[in-house]
Structure formats: structure tokens, C-alpha cells
Amino acid sequence: MFLAADVGGTHVRVGLVQATTSAGKPVTVLDYQTYACARFAGLAEILEDFLGGRPAHPIRCGVIASAGLPLPDGSVISANLPWPLSPRAIQARLGFADLRLVNDFEAVAHAAPHVEASQVLQIAGPAHGVDGPRLILGPGTGLGAAVWIPAHPRPIVLPTEAGHASLAAGNALELALLGRMLGERSHVPVEHALSGPGLFNLYSALCALRDVPVRHAAPGDITAAALAGADEHAHDALHAFCGLLGSVVGDMALFYGIQGGIYLAGGILPQLGGFLLESGFVARFLNKGPLRQALERIPVKLVEHGQLGVLGAARWYLDQPDDR
């Protein structure tokens, strides 16, 4: 048994996992819990709470999936975590023999292509793609993305910091929204619009452009109002969000030569399935001039699996050299 934690800016998902002998299901989740980051002083406190009252068999190793860039001193730079993250310090505090760090969407990439059909919603393209690179992307507290590349003896996963690339507008409204955001900062990254906080940024900018008051203080409230048809400005902000997401996903598919499939995973997307289908997402995804035909051949699926990050981190951990 070992520990697998999926660390986001809002929630931490922790699982007690065990390797199996099944090739189709190499990991079993024995226990699982979700924690709100704001309620704890750091990740060590969350893991201590999870481990409290565990079976007598001691847990001696684990893996942390998190966004951010690791530094030589073992700490992690992340724009979206509410507290510092240092796997080395956590390992020492918990008394673990081994605790490893993996990029959060690199972890998700190890699991997303293997999710059962009942856990996905087809958004665009054919049911199955060809054998080629796959893109895994999702807006949460930030925007995470990774590329899964088939290789022998095992696939290669390329983590990215796509959320920090520059946002580009695709129509007059988006150009006005981007101009509004540029009035507040010199660089508008993709995740400043395509994330939970990004949806609030879009909504606030839209309200400012239309000279109407901001009625909703949280992304969840904006989403709820939009889905209920209770606020046209919330609806338009969410529609802009979906259009921008389609454009960015199409760009990334071209950047990385994606052929095998695109998986929209985790974050705020699972609750938007129906809205996403009716929005401008697909049209914007395909709006790449003569390369539209290439994008039409790529399956685009919404992955609905709350434990995906934990499962992916565990699978990644089992693939690492066994020098523990």
C-alpha cells in the first residue's frame, strides 16, 4: 500500500492505493478522501489527518501530483496553491522512506485514456482516434495540460505549463474582454480566463464592459446562474469561456500533433457537459482554416472521474525505477 495525493489550488484528493497484478487495472483505491485546502495550514497537515486511524500496516511511501515547477531545493513554485509545497520536508515529517512529485496533469494523463466509456461524454469527433499523441487538459484553479505519447516499452507523458501561455481573442467580444484585462496587467495568461477564477475574471470584465453590477462573487455562482438561465451576463460569460476553451484546445492539438484523442478532465468541466455541447466550443475548436479536416478526425471527450488524479499519480509511481 502507498499514498497518492492529487493537489489542486482548492482541493486535495488523497487515496490509499495498492498495486494489483491486473494489466487492465494495475491500481486499486482502498480509501479516498477530499480535503478543502483553505481548512489546513499545508499539505503535511492534510496527509497526517488522512493517515490518522489508518490500518496498523505502516504507510512508508507515496506520490504527490501537483501543478508547479520543482526547484533544486525540493520546493515547488506554484501560482495556485494557498501554501508552500516542499515534498522533502513532508517526507521527513511523515517519516516516509520515499515520497515523489509528479506534475498534476502528467499524472492525469497516465489515467485518462483508460477511463471506461461510461465515464466519458463525447464532445466531438469519432468514437476512436488513431494510434498517436493524446492531449489531456482541464481548467480548475488554474489550467493544466499534458501530452500522452505512445512509445515502447511504455508511453511518454510530456507535462506542460500551457496555462501560462498568452491568451488570444477570437471575436470582437473576446477582444474587448482581453483589452479590459490588459488594462489591469501586462500579460494575460490563458488560465486568467480558462479556470475557475478565470470564469469570474471573464464575468467581471463583461459586467464592466456593459456597465452592470457584478452580482456573483464565486465561479460556482456564475455557473449556476448561467445554467439556470437566471442571468444573461453569467450566461454570456460562460459562453465566452467555452468558446475560448475550444480555441485553445484546437491550438494545442495543432501544436503537439494530436491524433489519438483529446480528454477534457476534472476541474469545473464535468458540471458543464450539456452547456459545453450547445456552446461554441466545437465550432471554435474546428475553426483552424484548412486544418479543420485534421481536427475533425480527433475524438474529444469529457472525462468524468473524481479520482482520476489519484489513479494517475499511482500509475505513474508504479512506472518509476524501483530504487525505493
Characterise the protein shown here.
- The protein has 324 residues and is α/β, with parallel strands linked by helices.
- Helices cover 35% and strands 22% of the residues.
- Helix 3 (104-111) crosses helix 11 (308-319) and helix 4 crosses helix 5.
- It is globular and about 60 Å long.
- The model has no long low-confidence stretch (mean pLDDT 90).
SS-derived structural category:
alpha/beta
Which series of helices and strands comes N to C?
Answer: EEEHEEEHEHEEEEHHHHEHHHEH
Mean pLDDT: 90
Helix content: 25-40%
Q: Mind summarizing the main beta sheet?
A: 6 strands, mixed
State the total count of DSSP E strands: 13
Strand content: 15-25%
- With strands numbered from the N-terminus, the spatial order across the biggest sheet is 8-13-12-9-10-11
- Ranges where pLDDT stays below 50 over 5 or more residues in a row are none
Determine Rg (CA atoms, Å).
Answer: 20 Å
Task: Identify the overall geometry.
Answer: globular
Helical segment count:
11
The span between the termini is 14 Å
